[in-house]
């Protein structure tokens, strides 16, 4: 259950940069995981879709273009949103533990937060239902109400969020505040478009480019590392020294500056092989059992040189 999504991290669904994104920007007091930010417009359209479905079921409005023929699919996607969020929270809820214990093969799953993908799929599809219903809606009352609620949510987000941002570490205050303001502006924009589309349905199409700007603008630099990825391979003096020894031997790399896959690039023999999460279990068990360097089992590996940091 490492890398479970804590409940307070769900703030990132509205303001993804509040706790920072990527290795350099993250400052939250838990193991860094992405929260599955799907865009403010996606949340608003999903909320609209839920209301549309409820009003359609109670006979207050008639269906849109495609919604009439896809009620079963709507229910499925509405269900996987809370299930996906609950599973992504891992050890913070009981559902993950129950599945881990009783569902075959579920105990082989790592990083519960990745299951946020299920919730993202559900939100995306609900947003599509919401937009579809918005374009074909015959009753405008709920659309205006939904738009007003979203605008009110933007005001609350701005006031409460900015006040809350003053309590974060001082070096992260600007980042948190900017994230809240951005979320409020996006939420307010989508709310105004929803409200206006009640009288002018074509305005609903403007929500799509707003969502595109949102996702591209906030996500295009995510996980982009400016460091040179080849630095861990470029140790010409070390490689030259090791190649001077013509005897058959292996090395053990225990240096942070040495890339784990460097040996195979330079034609050397490393007891770690290549860096791969799908390691061979018997060999890994042997590696953990050899004891200290110089012990008989360690010597059997044929290590002649150990690479260490200075």
Give a quick rundown of the structure.
This protein has 310 residues and is mainly alpha-helical. It has helices at residues 22-25, 40-57, 71-88, 95-102, 116-136, 141-165, 173-197, 207-219, 236-244, 262-266, 281-289, 296-299, and strands spanning 250-254, 303-308. It starts with 21 loop residues before the first helix and ends with a strand.
Describe this structure in words.
Helix 2 runs antiparallel to helix 6, helix 3 packs antiparallel against helix 5 and helix 6 runs antiparallel to helix 7. The protein is mainly alpha-helical. The protein is elongated and about 85 Å long. About 3% of the residues have low confidence. Helices cover 51% and strands 4% of the residues. The longest helix is centred in the middle third of the chain and has 25 residues.
> For the residues shown, what is the average pLDDT?
88
Radius of gyration: 27 Å
Secondary-structure element sequence? HHHHHHHHHEHHHE
The helix tally amounts to 12
Secondary structural class: mainly alpha
User: In this structure, how is the largest beta sheet organized?
Assistant: 2 strands, parallel
Taken from the alpha-carbon principal axes, the silhouette is elongated
Helix content: 40-55%
Low-confidence runs of at least 5 consecutive residues: 63-70
The count of β-strands is 2
Quaternary class: single chain
Q: In what range is the share of β-strand residues?
A: under 5%
Note the gap between the termini: 36 Å
The strand line-up of the biggest sheet is 1-2
């Amino acid at each position: 259950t490492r890398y479970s999504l804590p409940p307070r991290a769900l703030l990132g669904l509205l303001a993804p940069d509040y706790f920072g994104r990527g290795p350099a920007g993250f400052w939250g007091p838990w193991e860094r995981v992405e929260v599955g930010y799907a865009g403010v417009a996606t949340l608003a359209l999903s909320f609209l879709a839920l209301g549309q479905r409820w009003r359609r079921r109670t006979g207050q409005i008639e269906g849109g273009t495609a919604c009439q023929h896809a009620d079963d699919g709507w229910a499925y996607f509405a269900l996987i949103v809370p299930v996906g969020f609950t599973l992504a929270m891992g050890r913070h809820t009981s559902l993950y533990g129950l599945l881990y214990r009783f569902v075959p093969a579920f105990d082989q799953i790592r990083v519960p937060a990745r299951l946020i993908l299920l919730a993202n799929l559900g939100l995306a599809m609900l947003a599509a239902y919401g937009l579809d219903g918005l374009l074909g809606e015959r009753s405008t009352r709920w659309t205006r109400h939904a738009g007003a609620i979203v605008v009110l949510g933007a005001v609350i987000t701005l006031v409460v969020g900015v006040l809350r941002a003053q309590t974060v570490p001082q070096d992260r205050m600007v980042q948190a505040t900017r994230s809240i303001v951005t979320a409020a502006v996006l939420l307010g924009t989508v709310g105004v478009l929803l409200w206006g589309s009640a009288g002018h349905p074509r305005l609903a199409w403007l929500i799509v480019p707003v969502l595109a700007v949102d996702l591209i603008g906030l996500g295009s630099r995510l996980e982009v590392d400016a460091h040179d990825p080849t630095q861990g391979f470029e140790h010409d003096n070390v490689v030259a020294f090791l190649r001077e020894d013509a005897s058959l031997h292996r090395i053990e790399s225990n240096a942070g500056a040495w890339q784990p896959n460097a040996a195979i690039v330079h034609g050397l023999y490393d007891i770690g092989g290549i860096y791969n999460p799908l390691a061979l279990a018997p060999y890994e068990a042997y590696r953990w059992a050899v004891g200290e360097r110089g012990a008989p089992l360690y010597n059997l590996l044929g290590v002649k040189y150990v690479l260490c940091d200075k």
